[in-house]
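The following block was generated as part of the benchmark described in Methods. Ligand: magnesium ion.
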Amino acid sequence: MTAFVDIDGVTLTYRGASGDVTALRGTSLAVGRGEFTAVVGPSGCGKSTLMRLVTGLVRPTEGRVSLDGAAVDGPVKIAGMAFQNPNLLPWRTVTDNVLLPLEIVEPYRRRFRAEKKQYKERAEALLATVGLAGFGDRFPWELSGGMQQRASLCRALIHEPELLMLDEPFAALDAFTREELWCVLRDLWERIGFTVVLVTHDLREAAFLADTIHVMSARPGRIVTTRQVELPRPRDLEVCFEPAFVDLIHELRGRIAEMRAA
Amino acid sequence: MSGSMERLVPLWFTIGLFAVWEATCRLLDVDPFILPAPSEVLAALVQYWRPVLRHSLVTLWTTMVGFGLAVAFGIVLGLIVGWSRTIYRGIYPVMIGFNTIPKVAVVPILVIWFGIGEVPAILTAFLISFFPIVVNVATGLATMEPELEDVLRALGARKLDIMLKVGIPRALPYLFGSLKVAITLAFVGSVVSETIAANAGIGFLMAQAGSNFQMPLVFAGLMALAVEGIAMYALFALVERRMTRWAFRSSTSAAA
Ligand SMILES: Nc1ncnc2c1ncn2[C@@H]1O[C@H](COP(=O)(O)OP(=O)(O)O)[C@@H](O)[C@H]1O
Ligand SMILES: [Mg+2]
């Protein structure tokens, strides 16, 4: 049985006018179907590059990437993505922003005109599950940063992707809003059951949400440690104060410190 | 100061300027041939309102035709240049360099090619107002957030989808912002061309009046130009606000 996301011995070199940059070297990583995986590592170690590889936006220089058993050789179409910047389109209402993927992905694209009403209802229902009921007709600039990020998550999920790729989605939020959004994401994942790859540099975020945490080295990045998170589910924010959680954070910190010293 | 008072400030300022002008001419007894007083300019306007109006309309027409061409070509070229960041990076410096050539210098060439008349005025207006539109449209497209592009590409969006859904709507405020600059430039272009080589238009009228030593009429022409220029600028500033309300609103939003 192969993994849902399988990154096997991947090296990626960006060729540029000012020289080549090897972002990843010999990186291997496997994610099971339905698993919640976190990738942590220092800035510039190639985390975003890893996301772009899995979604087929860049091709590996060496090695192979496969998704659901098939080699990735172009944009994958079964992934939803969200980034630190919510990147909502300011000229569209929140609902119309969430609907954007349906205007692009088949089979929704074909039916979009005919079924716009149902799709709108679906978007509004999804918005309600992240606490944005009644905000569908607002414009993004009328929303706080945390609310925009909730809408961005909805946009990433509206086409029911099997894989959700999150690149430091909560990094720009204040601590309280961030913890609220952890819970939003946890609930979505528990309800829908997609596979998640979450890139973060917040160890608490990784430990609270993930089943598995991969630690990456500085550039050129590769996975140096993989750690299962055995905290029982469902988890609530109180878990962050339990000894097992604190020990886990401690241990990961130690690993990262060792790695940085080496 | 209350809002309505503040809005009247430009009006008061303009009236004050004319008052100072009038007072200076009277007190210092300035030769009307050097600088006619506003009252004399007004008298000339009243006396010659027919030719002034006729020539103003010619200028308005040549400006609008040149501007219309500039908008059409500007949008097309802007789309081509902004389509890919590589093209944009390669061509942008060339365009900026090209734009530093004073377009007025080509008027004599246009006259040789097309003769004296409306065509050189239209073409000068076109040439001079074309660049800001291209540059703005291209910039609006090429500065699209790469992450947003990634989001869409990962969904299997083609370049055309990305342009239609994001690039073009995003470039609209850039386009509308450039129109008010472009219309002003087009106006400058057509008037300059008329001054050099035309037999109608405000520029022609002013050149004629100048060579007949009718200074009040020259200034009357200048007033007509000012009114026309301000009106066109105001029109396109209004169009800009109307068409791209979201761009004005979102730039003032506090959300990160
Ligand atoms: N398109 C690109 N061209 C050239 N170099 C790039 C490109 N994207 C990323 N890099 C380089 O690759 C390295 C890894 O980048 P990235 O994957 O964004 O890291 P992270 O997300 O972990 O901060 C960085 O040194 C970055 O400068
Ligand atoms: Mg990154």
